[in-house]
Amino acid sequence: MSIITGNQNKAERPLMMGNEAIARGALEAGVKVVAAYPGTPSSEIPKTLGDVADEMGLYVEWSTNEKVSLEVAAAAAYSGLRALCTMKQVGVNVASDFLLHLAEYGSRTGLVLVTCEDPGSLSSTNEGDSRPYSKMMEFPLIEPGDIQEAKDMTRWAFELSETVRNVVMLRSVTRMSHASGNVTVGDLPETDVKADFQCNGEFFDQMTGPVMTLPSTAPAQRLRQHEGLAKAIACFEESPFNTYTGPDRPGLLIITSSAATFYCREAIAILGIEERVGLLKLGTTWPLPPRLIEKHLATADRVLIVEEGTPFLEDNLKALFADRIETVGPTRFHGRADKTIPSVDELNPDIVMAALAGLLNLPIDHSTADYRQRISAALEGNVPDRAMTFCPGCPHRASFWLLHEALKLDNRRGFISGDIGCYTLGVADCGFRAVKTVAAMGSGVGMASGFGKLRRFGLEQPVIAVCGDSTFFHAAMPGLVNAIHNQADMIMVILDNAGTAMTGFQPHPGIPVGADGKPLPALDIPTICQAMGARVEIADPFQFDAARKTIAELMDDGGGVRVLVLRQACALSPARKGKKEWTVSVDPDKCLGEACGCNRLCTRVFKCPGLIWDPKQKEMRIDEFVCVGCGVCAQVCPQNAIRVEKVVNS
Amino acid sequence: MNQANLKHDPYNLIITGVGGQGNVLASRMVGDMLSRLGFDITIGETFGASQRGGSVMSHLRISQKGSYSPQIPMGRAHMIVSLEPAETLRVLRAYGNRQVKVITNMRPVRSISVISGEQTYPAPETIMGWIRDFSESAWFLDTTETAVRLGNPIFGNVMLVGALARTGELPLDRDTFEAVVRSRMPASKVPVNMEAFDAGGAMIEDGRARITNPFYRDLMQACGQIG
């Protein structure tokens, strides 16, 4: 029995990852429909639920993009089923177009949007904060403060959504989603609900009328929305997820939320200031419960706000304070605004400790200073960096090698407009720095469409866009339509590695399988591009000669949009994992190291992690534990010094 | 549920290595074992954009009092278990202290800066010297070779779990490990995992691996902390 679906002994308290706890909370709430687009750190929530979809009678899908996923979830919530939609912070921007309409109309059944955010950009191209959407679009926001709450608050979020008749946003962060802790589970409900979309009722009847927001209906719908927010405030005033620990009249009051709660608790304990500092942990962060806040602000003259992301809570607390200054009395606020907390990057216990030590004039712990100083001096410059790179055997390394080579030979300073996925690393050494623009999903081809229209203004550089197969379906198709229709001069390269590799290999519409592992029809990318009107070629980035020829032809074919699908499965794909196609070795007679004139092309420039440059022996070797046997390095070596032998029965 | 006393509460354990070495699985196994014994466990993991070969680190907080931050404060690790020697140094530099203990696999995974010749990988003796200088005691293991004999270098992670158990630093026993393996893996995989666990333990037990820093050893003997 899995920990996710088990009705186990309550005393067992299984260890769950935050995302598993969120999945469990949704099951305890009786969720029926789950829709999502993968994005670190959110992907394990739908994955966990997809794995138990059959057992629990759920519909789980990996949607084309976040906007579509929210639309799918909303359809369920309008039909009487509790629905969950999950994404990372950048996805909320994609979904925001629909979200504004959803928030104005509201929901009929529990509809929860989970956004898992990435302060510090540990696995993102930005440090976005989605919480302002809850204020801007006026729906409730809640933030769990530990793994147990991640489970409990998810369950509660569905009830809250039905109380306020609107979507509820539950915000997690990397250190919540990817942290694990013990969770006391609740019961799983026996549910047997039938989906039924009632749409023949009165126009303004939220539960039975047509679902739409129109120019004339917006003010009335927003009033209805405000009634929901008032109900949320009433719930939040009494919510057990807002907790206070500390003295009745603390010298300093900390107000915090989310994973920052961990850091505050730890900093207070290590500094031993439990008697001096109060900790107000808010689980309900929009709208703020005014009476609760007023009560606590009145107890302290100084407040430190500790939160992940932008000063969202900080600004809202100050606005609330301005309204209540007469009852609360003079209060000094510390946080990101006065730089007590750094304005960027993720928090940790040390940052909170430093902030508290500064505000309370506490002595800094010097006991470890000597150790830190000595180890830093000893190791300075001696521990090799471990820059991010493509995995050994990654088809992207081969693809960028070929594209970089082609652009270099062409000699017109061509460049690649990149996109979001593993291949974003094309900006780095491992992609030979060929990628020169990176923005939102699909922006590679959209920008290339723009660059490709600048010929009349003198732009002579070849323009190449790259995107992955999942990104193609997510957001690149409209950009490609635009480029073809407007006759941009560009090559779009689709790096098809057969799955959403970066987030853990989730299927997408091009893969013949769904979130529950069952077969689904796959959409063929080259056929789609051909139908759109582009010249389409397909090549294998592991077959250098043929791929080179195709790229050269496409570069010569001036004008219009040309599409090249470089197709080769991800080195970590289930089909390939652990299977070597080639046994790779070095011919010591042919590899002359630095003497052969190639200037160590394989290890100095191609830099596959499966290669070893031995500076003592002055020769190249293969790291047999790291090499996955793709055979590409043999094609890179100009001396044919790398031998490949086909593995039999691989 | 019988709880042994922890040497420190919270006990701060870091398991580190590079992507693809099975570090995350090792930390889950240790977390599951201790959770079964009734301890409160919080695990913080750094992964996501850590492709194969990138640094991966798990922080385990083990307590009888409640849940702790998934990030250990700087300089406060009690034990570092590492699958890769350069990663041991990286973690030691941020989280080490005079009392920290270290178990490390000594087989390097070269980063691309080393492959390209921009940086050099320190010699094993140099790495061992630094680790001895900056820990209270250290065990140096070559798990990779033994793991390959068991059929796959990936078993190095399980061997390190076995080694950690045998140090007696934490209440980790063989039966609990077997229960965790049985709950996570198909029955056919249990024997090889047990073999790897035992092989890791043997590396600690036969004494070859342990090299205690003489400076700290003398210091602690003077304080009467060890016999």
From TrEMBL, chain A:
Transmembrane segments: none annotated. [4Fe-4S] cluster 2 binds at C608, C627, C630, C633. Its EC number is 1.2.7.8. Its cofactor is [4Fe-4S] cluster. The keyword Coiled coil does not apply. It comes from the Bacteria. One of its GO terms (biological process) is small molecule metabolic process. Keywords: 4Fe-4S, Electron transport, Iron, Iron-sulfur, Metal-binding, Oxidoreductase, Pyruvate, Transport. Binds 2 [4Fe-4S] clusters. In this family the first cluster has a non-standard and varying [4Fe-4S] binding motif CX(2)CX(2)CX(4-5)CP. CDD domains: TPP_IOR_alpha, TPP_PYR_PFOR_IOR-alpha_like. GO terms for molecular function: 4 iron, 4 sulfur cluster binding; indolepyruvate ferredoxin oxidoreductase activity; metal ion binding; thiamine pyrophosphate binding. SUPFAM superfamilies: 4Fe-4S ferredoxins, Thiamin diphosphate-binding fold (THDP-binding), TK C-terminal domain-like. Residues 582-616, 618-647 form the 4Fe-4S ferredoxin-type domain. It catalyses: indole-3-pyruvate + 2 oxidized [2Fe-2S]-[ferredoxin] + CoA = (indol-3-yl)acetyl-CoA + 2 reduced [2Fe-2S]-[ferredoxin] + CO2 + H(+). Heterodimer of the IorA and IorB subunits. Catalyzes the ferredoxin-dependent oxidative decarboxylation of arylpyruvates. This is Indolepyruvate oxidoreductase subunit IorA. It comes from Desulfosarcina ovata subsp. ovata.
Automatic annotation (TrEMBL), chain B:
The keyword Oxidoreductase applies. GO terms for molecular function: oxidoreductase activity, acting on the aldehyde or oxo group of donors. Keywords: Oxidoreductase, Pyruvate. InterPro entries: IorB_Oxidoreductase, Pyrv/ketoisovalerate_OxRed_cat, Pyrv_flavodox_OxRed_cen. Pfam families: POR. Residues 19-200 form the Pyruvate/ketoisovalerate oxidoreductase catalytic domain. Coiled coil: none annotated. This is Indolepyruvate oxidoreductase.
